[in-house]
Design a protein that fits this description.
The chain is an alpha/beta fold. The protein folds into two domains: 142 residues, Carbamoyl-phosphate synthase small subunit, N-terminal domain (Glucose Oxidase, domain 1), CATH 3.50.30.20; 192 residues, Class I glutamine amidotransferase (GATase) domain (Rossmann fold, 3-Layer(aba) Sandwich). 24% of the residues lie in helices and 34% in strands. It contains ten helices and 19 strands. The strands form three sheets. Strands 10-12-11-13-14-19-18-17-15-16 form a ten-stranded mixed beta sheet, sandwiched between helices. A seven-stranded mixed β-barrel has the order 1-2-8-6-4-3-9. Strands 5-7 form a two-stranded parallel ribbon. Strand 13, helix 8 and strand 14 form a beta-alpha-beta unit. Helix 8 crosses helix 9. The longest helix has 13 residues. It catalyses: hydrogencarbonate + L-glutamine + 2 ATP + H2O = carbamoyl phosphate + L-glutamate + 2 ADP + phosphate + 2 H(+); L-glutamine + H2O = L-glutamate + NH4(+). InterPro entries: Anth_synth/Amidotransfase (IPR050472), CarbamoylP_synth_ssu (IPR006274), CarbamoylP_synth_ssu_N (IPR002474), CarbP_synth_ssu_N_sf (IPR036480), Class_I_gatase-like (IPR029062), CPSase_GATase1 (IPR035686), GATASE (IPR017926). It comes from Methanocaldococcus villosus KIN24-T80. One of its GO terms (biological process) is glutamine metabolic process. Pfam families: CPSase_sm_chain, GATase.
Length: 347
């Protein structure tokens, strides 16, 4: 198949299509992870985005459902220098997701780093003519910014799901804004029964489950759009410990009266250095976010050493982090955060 990637500034890159024969739109972002392409593809936080892999060879070690972070692929489209196996191509095709290979991903990455993330269209097909490309140039300009799209309802669970460990010591209500499976796995490893609820579950319904603590999950899009969740968090203050990861960190900050902003090109990769301001230790972390916290009325406990952005906050009965302590993909340096979350429980 032929394939084109058209950016909102009129840039056109031609390559070879794989996966689905389709036309998709989204925010073009890049991730620097060298492994974990299955986890990237299935991460709900990438909903609404076309993902560029900076590592050039994708598909080397196949595809396994054991590596899924959700029930399937969540990215809108996929951009690689070279798709090295039939398994990765069939994987995208099975979930009706288009991919493009044979283009200069280094050029794309440098362009995003210098100018910021952009809206884009990825189209694959047997033959893509000049007139079609000109039409796409106009359509991509009119496509909504990611801050104008409600993405969390598309990836949150629609029903309550209860996950039980072999031995239950604690109960966690997980507000699902697009949770990754390995977050749930890490809670289960710590003997937490996990009650996974839809993002718009009311605070009184959450309290009916009598949880020991609440975790607000990762997820896609602009946190300021989730007014229902912010209201719920405010109502939960003072009732029990509250924790958050990634988008959950941003939502807790907003509920505390802080602010968030859209970053130029975000943090997406498995090598982000983060300093724990409580003891001075530095950890290498996995990250995937395009928004960040500022002006929060809480203790800042982690900062990013590359750009000094807020990477974690704490207050009485509150602990949240911007990075992904569950990794997948990325280093597991900060899995201890789950232990710290459990220690917040009142006994």
């Amino acid at each position: 198949m032929e394939a084109v990637l058209v950016l909102e500034d009129g840039t056109v890159l031609k390559g070879y299509g794989f996966g689905a024969e389709k036309e998709v739109y989204g925010e073009l972002v890049f991730t620097t992870v060298m492994t974990g392409y299955v986890e990237v593809l299935t991460d709900p936080s990438y909903k609404g985005q076309i993902v560029v892999m900076t590592y050039p060879l994708i598909g080397n070690y196949g595809v396994s459902e054991r590596w899924f972070e959700s029930d399937g692929i969540k990215v809108e489209g996929y951009v690689v220098r070279e798709a090295t196996s039939d398994s990765i191509k069939e994987f995208l095709k099975s979930y009706d997701i288009p991919g493009i290979e044979g283009i200069d991903t280094r050029f794309l990455t440098k362009k995003i780093r210098s100018g910021g993330v952009v809206k884009a269209c990825l189209k694959t097909g047997e033959k893509i003519g000049k007139d079609e490309i000109e039409e796409i140039k106009e359509k991509v300009k009119d496509y909504k910014d990611i801050s104008e799209i409600d993405l969390v309802p598309l990836v949150s669970t629609k029903k309550v799901i209860i996950h039980k460990p072999d031995k239950v010591k604690y109960r966690c209500v997980l507000i699902d804004c697009g949770v990754k499976k390995n977050i749930i796995n890490n809670l289960l490893k710590r003997n937490c029964e996990v009650i996974q609820v839809p993002y718009n579950t009311s605070y009184d319904k959450i309290l009916e489950y009598k949880p020991d603590f609440v975790l607000i999950s990762n997820g896609p899009g602009d946190p300021k759009r989730l007014k229902e969740v912010i209201k719920t968090i405010k109502c939960l203050f003072g009732h029990l410990p509250l924790t958050g990861i990634c988008l959950g960190n941003q939502l807790l900050a907003l509920a505390l009266g802080g602010d968030t902003y859209k970053m130029k090109f975000g943090h997406r990769g498995g090598n982000h250095p983060v300093k724990d301001l409580r003891d001075g230790k530095v950890y290498i972390t996995s990250q995937n976010h395009g928004f960040a916290v500022k002006d929060v009325d809480a203790d800042i406990i982690f900062k990013n050493l590359n750009d000094n952005t807020v990477e974690g906050i704490a207050d009485k009965d509150i602990l949240s982090v911007q990075f992904h302590p569950e990794a997948r993909p990325g280093p597991r340096d900060t899995e201890f955060i789950f232990d710290q979350m459990v220690k917040l429980i009142r006994r």
